[in-house]
Amino acid sequence: MKALNNLSDRITVHYNNEPSYDIVYSVSFDGIIDELKKLHIQNRRLCIVTESNVGPIYAKQLKSILEPHCKKVIVHQFDAGEQNKNISTINEIYETLILNKFDRKDMLLALGGGVTGDMTGFTAATYLRGIDFVQIPTTLLAQVDSSIGGKTGVDFKAYKNMVGAFYMPKLVYMNLSTLNSLPQREYLQGMGEVIKHGIIRDKEYFNWLMEHVDDVLKKDLSILKQLLFVSCNIKRIVVENDPKEQNERALLNFGHTIGHAVEKAKGFSLLHGECISIGINAASYLSMEKGFLSEEEYHKILALLKLYQLPVVTSDIIINDVVEATFNDKKMDAGIIKFVLADKIGNAFISRNISREDLVKGVEKVIINE
């Protein structure tokens, strides 16, 4: 939370101790040209990759801003939804780029949420063995999480993010006013990742989130800028220390092992951030059961998730299906799950001592079947 003492309109993310890209905060798209000119877009073709919910709202506006300043701008729009986060959709983007003669000097712009950002980044990493891309996240979830750190990928069948690459963007440009166009449920799912940041790294931030529930619910942009700055700074520090998830970066998976398994078992009918909230409940419960997290802090975590209107339990799925799905998780290490636990609010650690029986206990805590 100390980051608020130095609140600014940008954060620079480093890779191998060198400046890699900036995260820029704004309340409009007006400043994006100045940022893109630094990337020499004047002689480049740009492809705005977006989806069918976001594209009709923002793609035309963004295209009109960009067109006077670059060689050519096209828009590729795909059908929204996690079910379309697959290689077939990527193939359609490849074809658009080929037909429009995009080469290695050209650039992709990911306009949308996490699905758009992940797929655009994966396309950029693999098209012609790598072209530049920019993240323009329009959801709270993408702004605080998936747009930062260079993780890209697609789902394989029902297995989430099993195919991907680490590939850094050239810029992350956040227009906070895009949050006003989100349905409240879509907006608030991002708080699952935000609350996770407080749990794993910053107790003061966790308490700040408790104090500013009303401001966040009504989308007070000054408060949201503070929230984004702190959350993004937490993620920046972690990914700079461990860019390819060899150790510390795995802490960002708190709540994700069971959360991803619930997401799959529910057939993606729950939003990602909602599943992470359920996973946070399970991980916090196991942290308490293992003697690390106090009962008082466990209930504080549950209370905060509920204040932000996030689910902490679900139903209508088979407990064993969720447990089995955790063993197909990409965070497995030689058959052992690297499970993230919290020993107090503000500090998490990686455990390799979570047994199948422990997982069953955690899953049973969050699945309420009548």
In brief, what are we looking at here?
By secondary structure, this protein is α/β, with parallel strands linked by helices. The chain has 15 helices and 13 strands.
Explain this structure.
With 370 residues, the protein is an alpha/beta fold. The chain has 15 helices and 13 strands. The protein has helices spanning 32-37, 55-66, 87-99, 114-126, 140-146, 184-188, 190-201, 203-211, 213-217, 221-241, 256-265, 272-289, 295-307, 319-326, 356-366; strands at residues 10-15, 18-26, 45-51, 72-78, 107-112, 132-137, 151-156, 159-166, 171-175, 332-333, 336-337, 339-344, 347-351. Strand 3 (45-51), helix 2 (55-66) and strand 4 (72-78) form a beta-alpha-beta unit. Helix 5 (140-146) runs parallel beside helix 10 and helix 7 packs across helix 8 (203-211).
Distance, first to last CA = 42 Å
Tell me the Rg in angstroms.
Answer: 20 Å
Compute the number of strand runs. Answer: 13
Order of neighbouring strands in the sheet with most strands: 1-2-9-6-5-3-4
Reading the helices and strands in chain order gives: EEHEHEHEHEHEEEHHHHHHHHHEEEEH
Helix content: 40-55%
What would the principal axes of the Cα set say about the shape? globular
**Helix-and-strand structural type:** alpha/beta
* Share of β-strand residues: 15-25%
The unreliable regions are none
The helix count comes to 15
**Mean pLDDT score, rounded?**
94
Largest sheet: 7 strands, mixed
